[in-house]
Amino acid sequence: MTKTFVFDAYGTLFDVQSIGSATEEAFPGYGHYITQIWRMKQLEYSWLTTLMGRNEDFWTITLDALEYTLKTLGLKLPPQRLETLAATFNELSDYEDAETCLTQLATHRLAILSNGTKNMLTKLVGNSALNNHLHHILSVEESKVFKPDPRAYQLIIDRLAATREEVIFVSSNGFDIAGAKSFGFTVVRVERVSSEHLTRDLVNAAAVNFGPTEIFKAMRTQEEQLQLKPDFTIPNLASLPKLFSEPSVPIEGPEALDQSGN
Amino acid sequence: MTKTFVFDAYGTLFDVQSIGSATEEAFPGYGHYITQIWRMKQLEYSWLTTLMGRNEDFWTITLDALEYTLKTLGLKLPPQRLETLAATFNELSDYEDAETCLTQLATHRLAILSNGTKNMLTKLVGNSALNNHLHHILSVEESKVFKPDPRAYQLIIDRLAATREEVIFVSSNGFDIAGAKSFGFTVVRVERVSSEHLTRDLVNAAAVNFGPTEIFKAMRTQEEQLQLKPDFTIPNLASLPKLFSEPSVPIEGPEALDQSGN
Questions:
Q1: How many CB pairs below 8 Å do chains A and B form together?
Q2: Domain total for chain A?
Q3: Does A198 lie in the same domain as A109?
Q4: Residue A23: domain span
Q5: Predicted ipTM beyond 0.90
Q6: What InterPro entries does UniProt report for this protein, alphabetically (chains A, B) (predicted)?
Q7: Does residue B202 surpass a pLDDT of 80?
């Protein structure tokens, strides 16, 4: 049976940490500070502007967050180079397991719902190997709010003519997992950094140098304590097709799927 | 002329960093990791729950953020001790300039608007020297949203029967400064960490150990790039009364005050 899989883009299909080489090239020695503060601030600004009811687009927010980051670190770029550096968000690497995952799910309906503007997403997907594998690319731009505001997830219902029950939403981002779950989707969390590994890394780092990368991982890769648990947690995208393959014997099918009537 | 001053509590009148001794006592060697991640996550959860339209109170959020923090670091506390540690948010030190500031402004109407629950704020203020200096303590609890949602600031209008034009809102928190400005108040930013000092500290730290305290300062003490600038920036609360003292010669009065008709 055909299902509707909707993927988050930044951090789920595409590796946000791949901006690291561009930030390091622009400011040698400061790359990982810029990368982490920029990404954390970018999301923070998406939440704050939505809360204040101000309709900013994600490109403006990305530039503003970069400007904040550089200013905080006492660094400067002329406007043109600021835009060039921000444009690395349109050239992120896709995770190595993303294309295989989408290929194996090809008989299903495959979409992206992302905070990025249409323009950013067109470039991002167009620059990648995932271009031919996605049937729909939805930007929250038309909803005028960012995730996890429910109006952002409503776009999936409206544009794909899907019911909440049939959507399988896939994300690595805690706020997005909580938002999609709160909206009523079946949610798969891609846990790229397991809590065991992270804790070990953090405890080791605490003894040596607990830097911005550790803080980022601590803040943004773990399952949130928001009473909105994902239905499934998988270590990477390669595990997704298996999880939703048609069971040859019914009793082997994943329980939550059976419950939701798929 | 009597003015209405409304202060943010956590980080403005009260020093959130004063939870540091309790977190360090509970987990020696981990105090500053817990302090920073906990506070950053606490605010993150206040924004996310508001965006999702879920009505959580700040005490629950404070506990959830602490639980997240400990779990991430591989640490554990039984529920009772978790509550005891979280209760340090009700015993924060007031900044040493806070009482003098309020004393000097005593002829004006003085209030708090805080994310904290009524219960948390009653304890926090009751435990402090500021207790007798504040005329109103407003919790966003009744608005069922957190700052910077405009419905939180609306409480000032509704409960104090004040107009937007007459309110002087005082905060150190970037999201709060932006929110109050977006709502239409005259906003004073208390810049406890100047950008020059911060940049110098961060550059020095980058060469040695750029830890969670540096990330916290980089993320949460600087003026935001949100096109919502404060009307005034002062280095500490001691500078506030001077800024709003009646000018003996009209031309010496602060310009923005004259413009707003006070």
A1: 148
A2: 2
A3: yes
A4: 17-89
A5: yes
A6: 2-HAD (IPR006328), HAD-like_sf (IPR036412), HAD-SF_hydro_IA (IPR006439), HAD_sf (IPR023214), PGP-like_dom2 (IPR023198), S-2-haloacid_dehalogenase (IPR051540)
A7: yes
